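Listing S7. Sequence submitted for prediction.
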Amino acid sequence: MKKQDSWGALISQTGSEIIAIGKETGYLPSLIVTNNIKKIPEKNMEIFKENNIDIQVISFRPILDEYFSQALMSKTLITLHGYLRIIPKAFFRRFEGKIYNGHPALITKYPELKGLNMQEAIINNQEKYPICGSVIHEVIPELDSGPVVAEVRTENISMNKDHAYALLRRTSLESWKHFFKNIWKFPE
Protein backbone atom coordinates (compact mmCIF):
# COMPACT_ATOMS: atom_id res chain seq x y z
CA MET A 1 0.00 0.00 0.00
CA LYS A 2 1.19 3.48 -0.82
CA LYS A 3 1.10 6.16 1.86
CA GLN A 4 -0.42 9.44 0.66
CA ASP A 5 1.23 12.44 2.29
CA SER A 6 -1.70 14.73 1.42
CA TRP A 7 -4.30 12.55 3.22
CA GLY A 8 -5.24 12.58 6.90
CA ALA A 9 -8.04 10.60 8.55
CA LEU A 10 -9.99 11.13 11.77
CA ILE A 11 -11.27 8.02 13.56
CA SER A 12 -12.96 7.10 16.84
CA GLN A 13 -13.25 3.41 16.06
CA THR A 14 -10.94 0.53 15.08
CA GLY A 15 -9.36 1.77 11.84
CA SER A 16 -10.54 -1.36 10.02
CA GLU A 17 -12.29 0.68 7.33
CA ILE A 18 -9.07 2.55 6.51
CA ILE A 19 -7.19 -0.75 6.23
CA ALA A 20 -9.92 -2.17 3.94
CA ILE A 21 -9.74 0.98 1.79
CA GLY A 22 -5.96 0.58 1.63
CA LYS A 23 -6.23 -3.03 0.52
CA GLU A 24 -8.79 -2.16 -2.18
CA THR A 25 -7.27 1.06 -3.49
CA GLY A 26 -3.60 0.67 -2.64
CA TYR A 27 -3.62 3.94 -0.64
CA LEU A 28 -3.37 4.73 3.06
CA PRO A 29 -3.42 8.11 4.78
CA SER A 30 -0.08 9.34 6.07
CA LEU A 31 -1.76 10.54 9.28
CA ILE A 32 -4.47 9.07 11.48
CA VAL A 33 -5.86 11.20 14.27
CA THR A 34 -7.91 9.38 16.89
CA ASN A 35 -9.64 10.32 20.10
CA ASN A 36 -9.85 6.69 21.23
CA ILE A 37 -6.62 4.78 20.64
CA LYS A 38 -7.80 1.97 22.93
CA LYS A 39 -10.36 0.95 20.28
CA ILE A 40 -7.68 0.28 17.66
CA PRO A 41 -6.83 -3.45 17.84
CA GLU A 42 -3.16 -4.43 17.98
CA LYS A 43 -3.35 -6.11 14.55
CA ASN A 44 -4.51 -2.79 13.01
CA MET A 45 -1.82 -0.85 14.89
CA GLU A 46 0.77 -3.24 13.45
CA ILE A 47 -0.47 -2.57 9.91
CA PHE A 48 -0.28 1.19 10.51
CA LYS A 49 3.24 0.87 11.94
CA GLU A 50 4.39 -1.38 9.07
CA ASN A 51 3.23 1.30 6.64
CA ASN A 52 4.85 4.10 8.65
CA ILE A 53 1.53 5.84 9.34
CA ASP A 54 1.75 8.68 11.85
CA ILE A 55 -0.87 8.20 14.60
CA GLN A 56 -1.76 11.15 16.79
CA VAL A 57 -4.07 11.01 19.79
CA ILE A 58 -6.27 13.92 20.76
CA SER A 59 -8.51 14.10 23.81
CA PHE A 60 -11.90 12.41 23.75
CA ARG A 61 -13.54 15.82 23.51
CA PRO A 62 -10.81 17.70 21.66
CA ILE A 63 -10.31 21.44 21.88
CA LEU A 64 -9.90 23.46 18.72
CA ASP A 65 -6.11 23.67 19.01
CA GLU A 66 -5.84 19.87 18.92
CA TYR A 67 -7.56 19.78 15.53
CA PHE A 68 -5.04 22.22 14.13
CA SER A 69 -1.94 20.15 14.78
CA GLN A 70 0.93 20.93 12.42
CA ALA A 71 0.66 17.49 10.83
CA LEU A 72 -3.06 17.82 10.11
CA MET A 73 -2.67 21.35 8.74
CA SER A 74 -0.42 20.04 5.97
CA LYS A 75 -3.14 17.77 4.52
CA THR A 76 -5.26 18.58 1.48
CA LEU A 77 -7.74 15.75 2.15
CA ILE A 78 -9.33 14.84 5.48
CA THR A 79 -11.63 11.82 5.72
CA LEU A 80 -13.80 10.74 8.63
CA HIS A 81 -14.24 7.06 9.47
CA GLY A 82 -16.56 6.50 12.39
CA TYR A 83 -15.40 9.79 13.91
CA LEU A 84 -18.10 10.41 16.49
CA ARG A 85 -17.30 13.94 17.61
CA ILE A 86 -18.60 17.40 16.76
CA ILE A 87 -15.97 19.23 14.71
CA PRO A 88 -15.41 22.96 15.36
CA LYS A 89 -16.61 25.38 12.68
CA ALA A 90 -13.13 26.89 12.34
CA PHE A 91 -11.92 23.49 11.15
CA PHE A 92 -14.53 23.54 8.38
CA ARG A 93 -13.44 27.00 7.29
CA ARG A 94 -9.79 25.85 7.08
CA PHE A 95 -10.58 22.65 5.15
CA GLU A 96 -13.69 23.67 3.19
CA GLY A 97 -14.21 21.32 0.28
CA LYS A 98 -11.53 18.92 1.55
CA ILE A 99 -13.33 16.98 4.34
CA TYR A 100 -15.37 13.89 3.49
CA ASN A 101 -17.34 11.48 5.64
CA GLY A 102 -18.53 7.97 4.97
CA HIS A 103 -22.10 7.50 6.19
CA PRO A 104 -23.59 3.99 6.32
CA ALA A 105 -27.10 5.00 5.28
CA LEU A 106 -28.76 6.40 2.18
CA ILE A 107 -29.38 9.92 3.42
CA THR A 108 -30.21 10.89 -0.18
CA LYS A 109 -33.26 8.62 -0.10
CA TYR A 110 -33.96 8.61 3.65
CA PRO A 111 -32.88 11.95 5.18
CA GLU A 112 -34.14 10.82 8.58
CA LEU A 113 -31.14 8.45 8.74
CA LYS A 114 -28.67 11.28 9.39
CA GLY A 115 -26.70 11.10 12.63
CA LEU A 116 -26.12 8.14 14.91
CA ASN A 117 -27.74 4.72 15.21
CA MET A 118 -29.00 4.61 11.64
CA GLN A 119 -27.90 0.99 11.28
CA GLU A 120 -30.35 -0.07 13.97
CA ALA A 121 -33.19 1.73 12.18
CA ILE A 122 -32.32 -0.01 8.91
CA ILE A 123 -32.09 -3.40 10.61
CA ASN A 124 -35.32 -3.02 12.57
CA ASN A 125 -37.43 -1.51 9.75
CA GLN A 126 -36.75 -3.42 6.54
CA GLU A 127 -40.24 -2.65 5.26
CA LYS A 128 -39.59 1.09 5.62
CA TYR A 129 -36.04 0.80 4.22
CA PRO A 130 -36.13 -1.82 1.42
CA ILE A 131 -33.02 -0.24 -0.11
CA CYS A 132 -29.90 0.33 1.95
CA GLY A 133 -26.38 1.50 1.25
CA SER A 134 -23.74 4.05 2.06
CA VAL A 135 -22.71 7.51 0.91
CA ILE A 136 -19.62 9.67 0.96
CA HIS A 137 -20.47 13.31 1.51
CA GLU A 138 -18.59 16.54 1.90
CA VAL A 139 -18.55 17.57 5.54
CA ILE A 140 -20.12 20.91 6.43
CA PRO A 141 -21.10 22.25 9.86
CA GLU A 142 -24.65 20.85 9.60
CA LEU A 143 -24.67 17.16 10.54
CA ASP A 144 -24.57 14.81 7.53
CA SER A 145 -25.85 17.55 5.21
CA GLY A 146 -22.98 18.19 2.80
CA PRO A 147 -23.20 17.32 -0.89
CA VAL A 148 -23.10 13.58 -1.57
CA VAL A 149 -20.26 12.69 -3.94
CA ALA A 150 -20.48 8.88 -3.95
CA GLU A 151 -23.28 6.44 -3.22
CA VAL A 152 -23.73 2.68 -3.36
CA ARG A 153 -27.19 1.13 -3.03
CA THR A 154 -28.35 -2.44 -2.60
CA GLU A 155 -31.48 -4.31 -1.66
CA ASN A 156 -31.94 -4.53 2.09
CA ILE A 157 -31.76 -8.29 2.47
CA SER A 158 -30.68 -8.23 6.11
CA MET A 159 -31.21 -11.63 7.66
CA ASN A 160 -29.94 -10.60 11.08
CA LYS A 161 -27.95 -7.85 12.75
CA ASP A 162 -24.52 -9.25 11.77
CA HIS A 163 -25.59 -9.66 8.16
CA ALA A 164 -26.95 -6.11 8.07
CA TYR A 165 -23.71 -4.65 9.41
CA ALA A 166 -21.70 -6.69 6.88
CA LEU A 167 -23.94 -5.41 4.07
CA LEU A 168 -23.45 -1.79 5.17
CA ARG A 169 -19.67 -2.29 5.55
CA ARG A 170 -19.53 -3.64 1.99
CA THR A 171 -21.49 -0.68 0.58
CA SER A 172 -19.33 1.72 2.57
CA LEU A 173 -16.14 0.23 1.15
CA GLU A 174 -17.59 0.36 -2.38
CA SER A 175 -18.48 4.05 -1.84
CA TRP A 176 -14.94 4.83 -0.72
CA LYS A 177 -13.48 2.93 -3.69
CA HIS A 178 -15.65 5.02 -6.03
CA PHE A 179 -14.57 8.19 -4.21
CA PHE A 180 -10.86 7.46 -4.60
CA LYS A 181 -11.17 6.23 -8.17
CA ASN A 182 -13.45 8.95 -9.55
CA ILE A 183 -13.62 11.93 -7.17
CA TRP A 184 -10.34 12.37 -5.31
CA LYS A 185 -7.56 10.90 -7.40
CA PHE A 186 -4.11 10.72 -5.87
CA PRO A 187 -1.10 11.41 -8.05
CA GLU A 188 0.72 8.23 -9.10
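Caption to Listing S7: primary sequence and predicted C-alpha coordinates for the chain studied. The longest helix spans residues 161-183. Helices lie at 16-25, 42-50, 64-67, 70-73, 89-94, 118-124, 161-183.
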